[in-house]
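step 4 of 6: structure.
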Amino acid sequence: MIDSWDLVVVGAGFAGLACAKRAAERGLSVLAIDRQPSPGRHVRTTGILVKEAQAAWPAPPPLVRRLSRVRLYAPSHRYVELANNGYDFLATDTAELMGFLTDETRRAGAEVRFGTAFAGATETGGRWVLDGHGVAGSFLVGADGVHSKVARALGLGRNTQLLKGVEWEFEPADRDGDCLHCFVDPERAPGYIGWVVPGVDVTQVGLAVNDRHRVNLSRFIGSLDACLGLRGRRVREKRGGMIPVNGLLKRSHGDRVLLIGDAAGMVSPLTAGGIHNCYRYGRVAADAIADYLEGDAPHPGDVVRSAYRGDLWKQGARWCYDHLPLAGCLEAGLGASWLLKRFAGKVFFNQFAG
Ligand SMILES: Cc1cc2nc3c(=O)[nH]c(=O)nc-3n(C[C@H](O)[C@H](O)[C@H](O)COP(=O)(O)OP(=O)(O)OC[C@H]3O[C@@H](n4cnc5c(N)ncnc54)[C@H](O)[C@@H]3O)c2cc1C
């Protein structure tokens, strides 16, 4: 017996849940599967929400911490402080947040099954039958992350440009405050930045580098001691993951199948933030799939592609970040900090949304 659904979503992360919830609200029968044993068991992200992400899918106050200032550090650890009245970033208790998002998705009417891994699918009679699960969907969404198995199994595009990110969670300190600390440091974080986030009952410290380099987080943490004093604090958890910065994949959809979120490369090549895009395009995809299954609507992949905000200039900015001596410019710019504040403020407060 095959268990048939209008939509099967592979991956119950930010993108998969946003898509599953919206599709259920549109009246589709929806099954989301995830190989993790339970929501939030394996967190790979820092989990900072930009303001727009919080507006798109509000997280409950106990699961977030408001960060209203950004300190941007040059390699010498001199810094400029940025704030934009009314624009906050939110640190999250990401593991708990995933539980909350799963509950909301279930409440909207979708079934979400954990401990269920996608291994492959065959198209039979106008629907995708999943290998080994006795499950079929009229439409299949691959929201299974940066190394998507759905993409691999069904011959869709793959992410090629990646950053490696590693993060440790320390026990918090009273003086952590409401400031997000970002470190431009081409020696320790070539291709991206290091960060210190006063999170929800933790302090998160991380580093991301381009995939030609090794991440050495201990060395970075050692270098922060003079300004942030992490020595002696207990490390509670360690995590890491890859971040696709190639932009939206050219082949992100096929017959009755569509990739979203990291699987599709929906991450800002400039800021490496992806959660807001997951929420936004997960929802766009769900609406397009509902219209498509009702008949006479364009392929959801084409709808998502035309809605997707071009990341061409962000790829240009990424090239500059990789190839120009921007750390030196930042050091020099600290002397003309009003100009630096204007430029950096624009990147942080207008572009982190994705
Ligand atoms: C270190 C790091 C820090 C980051 N920090 C931020 C940040 O602060 N803010 C921000 O906006 N973005 C951040 N990002 C990016 C952001 O985390 C991602 O863009 C976002 O999590 C992508 O969500 P997703 O749902 O597409 O994929 P994922 O979150 O990767 O979810 C994919 C899901 O698919 C499941 N899955 C995988 N394979 C299978 C399979 N075969 N069968 C079934 N299920 C499967 C996984 O278990 C997982 O639950 C960060 C990324 C990293 C690596």
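step 5 of 6: annotate
 - The mean pLDDT is 91.
 - The domain at 3-44+93-160+246-312 is CATH 3.50.50.60 (FAD/NAD(P)-binding domain).
step 6 of 6: archive
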